[in-house]
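Predict structure. Chain length: 128.
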Amino acid sequence: MFGGVGQRLEPPDAMIEDGEHNCYIIRYMQDRIEDLEQLRHCYQSAADRYYFARAESSSDLPELYIVFLCNYDYYGLGHAMYYMDDIYDGYEIDNGRHMVILNSRYRVANAAPQIIGVLDSIRAKEDS
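Prediction complete.
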């Protein structure tokens, strides 16, 4: 599903579907500073191809969340969580495609307590 002819894309760590027709693609980015927005589009395109081939109508497509769990602060603002919808021509659009970046090295706890707990646990493991 991930990667195409002549293209090598590292698969995500997990692809999970829930009972409410949501899909979560999760990738842990340990010390790997990459262009997450470009990587997001690669994962999103692969997931869209997968779901479009199986869908009978556009209402069959799931909400898609690309989640990057990082041990570095991608945007450098210190936030625990960055969230954005899909971007087209520089503008966010609401098309059911989302990206979430979680930062275990946060300084601003701007996420739900459960997420902060997971990030703190990851940070403790990384520091030990």
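Summary: The radius of gyration is 15 Å.
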